[in-house]
Design a protein that fits this description.
The protein is of the alpha/beta class and 562 residues long. It has 18 helices and 18 strands. The chain has helices at 5-21, 139-144, 163-172, 190-202, 220-239, 251-264, 278-286, 317-325, 334-339, 361-384, 392-407, 418-429, 441-455, 459-466, 471-488, 505-512, 524-536, 544-550; strands at 28-35, 38-42, 51-54, 60-66, 70-76, 87-94, 96-98, 114-116, 133-134, 147-148, 154-157, 179-186, 209-214, 243-249, 290-291, 300-308, 328-332, 351-352. The strands form 4 sheets. Strands 11, 12, 13, 14, 15, 16, 17 and 18 form an 8-stranded mixed beta sheet that branches. It has a 6-stranded antiparallel barrel with strand order 1-2-5-4-3-6. A two-stranded antiparallel ribbon has the order 7-8. Helix 7 (278-286) packs parallel to helix 8 (317-325). The longest helix has 24 residues, at 361-384. It is elongated. It starts with a helix and ends in a 12-residue tail after the last helix. Mean pLDDT is 85; it is low at 494-562. Bound molecules: adenosine-5'-diphosphate and magnesium ion.
Length: 562
């Protein structure tokens, strides 16, 4: 840091003046330069790394660069009121987060407790393997990319692909359970954060949620510190043997904030102008996620960092860093999202390296098959569009894949309990949805769940309790799905080769029920024609033309008019 010569002379003068007095000046320094949220301070020879510094007007700062002559400090507040020559004092404390300085205007939180923002992560001795799931309530994730308590799972994708939505749904799904959620918003618009809080509030999720916000309008040093503050709060629960979940939304903006302060502090820029220790900044944050063993209280801290990619480029610097730090990633894709496949999870490249240990056995039983079928489907679908006539086995596989893909669609704010997920995924992977129109899969799921709850109310609780599908439960599920399809007529219209599809009165009534709203909007026309077609009772063979046009789920109900 260059210091101007008149500053040097004034400092030397000051030194000489103070020399005879023998005053102890350790711990008090003078600002020699201030601006852009940072200050250079002369005279703080005793400052510690990331020590809290006290500026005038009650503004706090953090020692960031310890140099030979000066200390570079981040100013955690309004730096415009500070000027050269102001005195700065050390406090002897490293930067810490008060557990209770609310910004939502709902009154103070009664506590005097503080925790250091930076802490060394728990070592391997006090940890134990991850074995308890964090149920997100999202079918595509709980089934294929399970997240365990203590795990670090990255949510990655372009902007507007539903990254935040996944985090929020996960938080909402913890309602009434034992997982405390901390949502850290970094560099987002204040209005966006306010919306998220409103959504959480509306769904009763703020009772178990802490929101830490360093908005885009806040100084970069605060954005840099926010995730560490969030994890420090999570550690309070971890240390007390509780379970906590930290969402960092998002770490790309965190990296920008860190790059900004580092460049201002003249730290040497590295790749993409990020400072050399950006990897360390993220790894020491995520390393603090842990599952402690019984002797250490048995708490857990799960981390869900979010990374925003540019045009799907996961090989950029920050994405690759965070991918390598975490235990897996949920990859969201824009084209899937735009096709209406939401949540837009790319099942092929999303992984959870903790895997099945973080699932109940029943889910493992259905999800193995699901992954396999979907993988085969992707492979086939890639070349099937060029092939004119396919053999039956291939067509069946394509149908299965399509129904499974449709089953994994889910609207926002509608988390599904794990036992319901098991029931519907069991039905889908065992081919019970193969003859259901793809556009009606969502509707099928809703009604099927309702059917089970009304005709066999013990079934879903039994799955939840047993946590595994034994022969008895499978028998009950089989009966439920057969009865359900019998009564409602699902699948019959789309499976002409199986014979007549004479709908019952009950079915006709059911078809008119509102409740189809969340079904895919992709084929509204087909949906409207469906009841009429069924009532006419002549939903017969699917037109070959339609089949060729629409793929395997051609709505045959367009046919009867002909
Ligand atoms: N499963 C879903 N179904 C329907 N809409 C969704 C779903 N997930 C997200 N969205 C919508 O997509 C938009 C972008 O989601 P958001 O989570 O803000 O994306 P990101 O955080 O990736 O920028 C939002 O308007 C949200 O309501
Ligand atoms: Mg977002």
């Amino acid at each position: 840091m260059a210091i101007r010569s008149d500053e040097i002379t004034s400092i030397i003068r000051g030194e000489l003046k103070g020399f005879e007095a023998g005053a102890d000046v350790a711990g008090v320094g003078t600002i020699v330069e201030v601006g852009d949220g940072i200050a250079q301070i002369y005279g703080l020879s005793g400052a510690l790394a990331s020590e809290l510094l006290e500026f005038p007007n009650g503004i706090m700062g953090m020692a960031f660069n310890l140099e030979e002559e000066t200390v570079g400090a981040l100013i955690l507040g309004d730096y415009t009121s500070l000027k050269e020559g102001d005195q700065v004092k050390t406090t002897g404390r490293v930067v810490e987060v008060p557990l209770g300085q609310p910004i939502d205007g709902k009154g103070p939180i009664e506590t005097k407790k503080t925790r250091p923002v930076e802490r060394i992560a728990p070592g391997v001795i006090v940890r134990q393997p991850v074995d308890t799931p964090v149920q997100t309530g999202i079918k595509a994730i709980d089934s294929m990319i399970p997240i365990g308590r203590g795990q670090r799972e990255l949510i990655i994708g372009d902007r507007q692909t539903g990254k935040t939505a996944i985090a929020i749904d996960t938080i909402i799904n913890q309602k009434g359970q034992d997982l405390i959620c901390i949502y850290v918003a970094i560099g987002q618009k204040q209005s966006t954060v306010a919306q998220v809080v409103a959504q959480l509030e509306e769904r009763g999720a703020m009772d178990h949620t802490i929101v830490v916000s360093a908005a885009a309008s806040d100084p970069a040093p605060l954005q840099f510190l926010a995730p560490y503050a969030g994890v420090a709060m999570g550690e309070e629960f971890l240390d007390n043997g509780r379970d906590a979940l930290c969402v960092y939304d998002d770490l790309s903006k965190h990296a920008w904030a860190y790059r900004q302060v580092s460049l201002l502090m003249r730290r040497p820029p590295g790749r993409e102008a990020y400072p050399g220790d950006i990897f360390y900044a993220h790894s020491r944050l995520l390393e603090r996620a842990a599952r402690l063993n019984k002797d250490s209280g048995g708490g857990s801290l799960t981390a869900l960092p979010v990374i925003e990619t540019q045009a799907g480029d996961v090989s950029a610097y920050i994405p690759t860093n965070v991918i390598s730090i975490t235990d897996g990633q949920i990859f969201l894709q824009t084209d899937l999202f735009n096709q209406g496949q939401r949540p837009a999870v790319n099942a092929g490249i999303s992984v959870s390296r903790v895997g099945g240990n973080a699932q109940i056995k029943a889910m493992r039983q259905v999800s193995g098959r699901l992954r396999l079928d979907l993988a085969q489907y992707r492979e086939l679908a890639a070349f099937a569009q060029f092939a004119s006539d396919l053999d039956k086995a291939t067509r069946d596989q394509l149908t299965r894949g399509e129904k499974l893909t449709a089953t994994l669609r889910q609207p926002q704010f509608a988390p599904v309990p794990v036992e319901q997920q098991v029931a519907i995924l069991w039905a889908a992977t065992n081919g019970h949805l193969d003859d259901v129109e793809t556009a009606k899969v969502g509707e099928f799921e809703t009604e099927f769940t309702r059917f089970i709850e009304s005709t066999n109310e013990g079934l879903l609780p039994a799955i939840a309790k047993e946590k595994a599908l034994n022969d008895d439960l499978i028998g009950q599920l089989t009966k439920a799905v057969t009865d359900f399809k019998e009564q409602t007529g699902y699948g019959k219209a789309s499976a002409p080769e199986k014979g007549a599809a004479k709908p019952t009165e009950a079915q006709a009534a059911k078809e008119e029920e509102p409740g189809a709203k969340e079904a895919d909007e992709a084929q509204p026309a087909a949906k409207e024609q469906q009841p009429a077609a069924k009532q006419a009772g002549k939903a017969k063979k699917a037109s070959k033309v339609a089949a060729a046009k629409e793929g395997d789920d051609a709505p045959p109900n367009e046919e009867p008019k002909a």
